[in-house]
Structures are given as structure tokens and as C-alpha cells.
Specification:
Layout lengths: L10 H35 L4 H4 L1 H13 L2 H9 L1 H20 L4 H29 L5 H4 L5 H20 L4 H4 L1 H15 L13 H20 L8 H22 L14 H31 L4 H29 L1 H19 L8 H29 L8 H33 L5 H15 L1 H14 L10
Length: 474
């Protein structure tokens, strides 16, 4: 099916295309939320510690970030349809490979391969939607692509909890196979095939420097839980990571078609805005990981019950998106980000006060506050960042934002699980005369861990005060 010729717009034809793209994106997004609930089960099954098990998530999110810059290049050379379908095929295959894992190292490896495939799906899906939907029709129809962002945080934890209750952990990966096959059938039926568009050579130097540098920094942070900076390998990894990231930055500045539009950081407004976005992302992704862990390991909830407890956060986030959009359009970024971050901070502050007597209802209110604040701020800060980015790079900002977001997600997992591991070790070292006292010490360890995201939110709130309106660009 070649759609290179001009055809009249047909709403009846375009809606199935957009929904097909949304289905493929949902497959990848849901897999991320599923792992937050499944992590304690995998940790127990493979008889490993949390610091090691969390790499099932970190490897996945980092692989997403590493491969995202390749998406445009692959679309040009394979066509967007083939790149999208190929990524779905590989994601489905590696999901099956995850079920064959007999050790945590195998699981981490296959999760990284899953991420390499999944990182292509989102950016190529967005590019496909822009191809099939005319400019004057994008407003309403693009809202359909927001469905995975709303559905995944609700369906993912619930589905994971239910599968772990009625089957083994293998089921959380087996479920991707029929969904992947269905997505491929829909792609073949509804997505048009355009001609390849071979343009500029690929920036291989940037592709080697960037991921290598970020991975070095992440692994160095991971080692901090058991080794200090006095450890030669840890300090060497930090130094290597800083050097590689620096070389990557200067390489991108001088590339005609860089992997990441780092020129945008020449704008002070953009730099401050994306810094706020990163800080908030560390908090939200970290809390989304820590809360299910707390519910299952400290409160003794089942995976299904933990999944049900996350639903209010997703619903509150959706409500926050609506409220935030209205505030942003009327009064600007400060009017929405300051109260939004304050609401998040209120929820996280309450989480720092966790005790053995904290009720499920109290937990729900804390989770709702975090979700509401996140919903109010995330999309609005992203919109602000796009509006203040230098006009000559604005079309290449989205891939960079997507990549850096996944790197920040990886950082959040490594940082907070390491802090939690250290706090739990300290709790276990305390003298406890009963199991109830030991449980109380572990719950306090989680509360102390939430102090880290609370401090990050305070820094984010203060930074929002420096954000100015787009027309005042410096």
C-alpha cells in the first residue's frame, strides 16, 4: 500500500491508524508499569538483593534512552511502518526470551534487549501519526495517542497483580506475545507504507559516546551503596562517565544532524525548565517504584492488592492533567508548577512519616497527592520547554527529551533503590526483640528513603521561581 500520492482526508481511515499506533505504544508503556509491581516477585524467585533486581528496570529504561535517537534514522531508511513493525516483532521475541531466564543476569540481559526494541516504538509511532493526520486535524486525533499514558499506569499494575496471583511470573511476559501479534496484524491492515527517505549519515560517534558515558555514571552510582568514592573502580567510572558525556556534548554541538539537539541548552530558560522536568521525573518514577515495593515487602500486600492501590494515583494524575492545562493556558507555568510541585511534596512528606500504624486509606491519600501534583506539572513543563527552546532546533527537541527522560528514570531507580538498600541494612542491624519491631524498623527505612525525593522536590519548586514567560527569552 503506497500512499505517496495525495489522497483526500478520511476520518474513517485515520482513526484506525491512530488507534493501531496507540496500541503498539501501550504495549511498551504497560511493560514498564508491570515491572514496578513484579520486582519483589522476581527478587524472591532469583534469590537476589534489591540492588541487583532493580537492574531489570534500569537496564530496560536505559536501553530505551540509548536507542531512541536511532528512531528517525531507521524511519528514513526502512520507512516508518517497517521500523514500527520491526520494533514490535523484536519486542515480542525478547518478551518470550525473558520467560526463558534461569538467572537474574539472563533476565537483565533480555530486559535490556526488550528496551532496545521498545525505544523505537514511541518516537516512530509519533512520526507515523504526523504522516497520516493533516495539520488541521491533529489537535483532536492526537489526543488518542495520549491514551497509553492514561491506560498503562492503571492496567499495567492490575494486570501484573492478577497474573502473579493466578499464574507464575512468566505470565507477565507471555501476555506481550498475543498483544504483539495483534498489533502486527493491525499495522499490516491499517498503516500505509511510504517510500524510504535516505538523507544524512548517522552520527555513530555520538551514538557511542552518549550511552557509554551515561551507563558509566549509572553504574558508578549503583556501586556507591557498597563502595565509597575512595574505591578506585567507582571513582574511575564517575570520571570516565563525566569525560564521555562531555565529549558527547561537544560532538553534538558540531554535528549538522546531531542525535540530541544539545544546542537548546544555550537557552537559559530551556535549561532551567528541563532541569525542573528531570527533578520531578526522578521523584515520580522513584515513588512509583518505591510504593509498590513498600506495600509488598513491608505491609505484606499481595501483588494484586498493590496494583489496586496504584490506581488512585493514575486517576489523580489524569485529573491533574486537566486542571494543569487550564491553569497553564490562563496564567502560565508558575501558576501550575508551583502548586503542582507543592501538592507532590505534601504527598511525599507524608510518606516520610510512614509507621506500622499507617492505614491503607492514609496511604491512598498520599498516593493521590503525588499523582495529582505530577499530572498538574509534567505535561505543562514539557509544553513550556518546547515553547522556550531555540526555534532552529525545536523540531529535534522531542527525541532528546524522550532520551533524557529515560536516562533520568534509570537514575531514579539506581539512586533510590541504593538509598533504600542502605536504609534497610541499617534497620536490620538494629536490635529488635520481636518480628513486629523488626517490621517497624523496615517501615521506618522506607520513610527515611522518601526524604531524598522530598529534598529533590524542594529544589525543583525553588527552580520554578526562575522560570519566565516564553516572550521573555534570554
Amino acid at each position: 500500500m503506497d500512499t505517496t500520492k495525495s489522497e483526500p482526508f478520511s476520518l474513517k481511515k485515520v482513526i484506525p491508524m491512530v488507534l493501531t499506533i496507540a496500541a503498539g505504544m501501550l504495549l511498551v508503556m504497560m511493560d514498564t508499569t508491570i515491572m514496578n509491581i513484579a520486582l519483589p516477585t522476581l527478587q524472591h524467585h532469583f534469590n537476589t538483593n534489591l540492588a541487583t533486581a532493580q537492574w531489570c528496570i534500569t537496564a530496560y529504561t536505559f536501553a530505551l534512552a540509548a536507542v531512541t535517537p536511532l528512531s528517525g534514522w531507521l524511519s528514513d531508511r526502512l520507512t516508518a511502518k517497517r521500523a514500527f513493525a520491526g520494533a514490535i516483532v523484536l519486542f515480542t521475541i525478547f518478551s518470550f526470551m525473558c520467560t526463558l531466564s534461569t538467572s537474574i543476569s539472563m533476565m537483565i540481559t533480555f530486559r535490556a534487549l526488550q528496551g532496545l526494541a521498545g525505544g523505537i516504538v514511541g518516537p516512530v509511532g509519533m512520526a507515523l501519526s504526523w504522516q497520516v493526520v493533516p495539520t488541521d486535524k491533529r489537535g483532536a486525533l492526537m489526543g488518542l495517542l495520549g491514551l497509553p499514558m492514561v491506560v498503562a499506569p492503571i492496567v499495567g499494575p492490575l494486570l501484573c497483580g492478577w497474573l502473579l496471583k493466578v499464574a507464575t511470573w512468566h505470565a507477565i511476559f507471555f501476555i506481550n506475545i498475543p498483544i504483539g501479534i495483534l498489533s502486527l496484524i493491525l499495522i499490516e491492515i491499517f498503516i500505509p507504507l511510504n517510500k524510504t527517505n535516505i538523507k544524512d549519515p548517522f552520527d555513530w560517534r555520538g551514538m557511542l559516546l552518549g550511552p557509554s558515558g551515561f551507563l558509566s555514571l549509572l553504574y558508578a552510582i549503583h556501586r556507591l551503596s557498597n563502595h565509597g568514592l575512595s574505591d578506585p573502580l567507582t571513582s574511575g567510572l564517575f570520571l570516565l562517565g563525566i569525560v564521555l558525556v562531555g565529549l558527547f556534548y561537544f560532538n553534538e554541538l558540531h554535528q549538522p544532524k546531531p542525535l540530541m539537539a544539545v544546542q537548546a541548552f544555550k537557552s537559559g530558560q530551556f535549561t532551567r525548565g528541563i532541569s525542573v522536568s528531570w527533578l520531578n521525573q526522578i521523584v515520580f518514577f522513584g515513588v512509583t517504584l518505591l510504593v509498590p515495593l513498600f506495600l509488598q515487602t513491608a505491609k505484606g500486600f499481595t501483588a494484586l492488592h498493590a496494583g489496586e492501590m496504584i490506581i488512585p494515583q493514575a486517576l489523580a494524575s489524569f485529573v491533574g492533567m486537566i486542571i494543569g492545562g487550564q491553569l497553564f493556558d490562563r496564567w502560565g507555568i508558575r501558576a501550575v508548577a508551583l502548586p503542582g510541585i507543592a501538592v507532590m511534596a505534601g504527598g511525599v512528606m507524608a510518606l516520610t512519616q510512614l509507621t506500622s500504624s499507617t492505614t491503607s486509606l492514609q496511604l491512598i491519600f498520599m498516593i493521590i497527592a503525588v499523582g495529582l501534583g505530577q499530572g498538574m506539572t509534567t505535561m505543562q513543563i514539557s509544553t513550556y520547554n518546547l515553547s522556550v527552546a531555540p526555534k532552529n532546533v525545536v523540531t529535534r527537541i522531542t527525541p532528546m527529551i524522550n532520551s533524557t527522560q529515560q536516562i533520568v528514570n534509570s537514575l531514579a531507580v539506581v539512586l533510590l533503590t541504593n538509598v533504600l538498600t542502605k536504609n534497610i541494612k541499617h534497620a536490620m542491624s538494629l536490635h529488635a526483640t520481636s518480628m513486629a519491631m523488626m517490621k517497624s524498623h523496615v517501615i521506618l527505612a522506607y520513610g527515611h528513603t522518601f526524604i531524598v525525593p522530598l529534598c529533590i522536590l524542594v529544589a525543583s519548586w525553588l527552580m520554578v521561581l526562575t522560570l519566565t514567560k516564553p516572550k521573555e527569552q534570554d
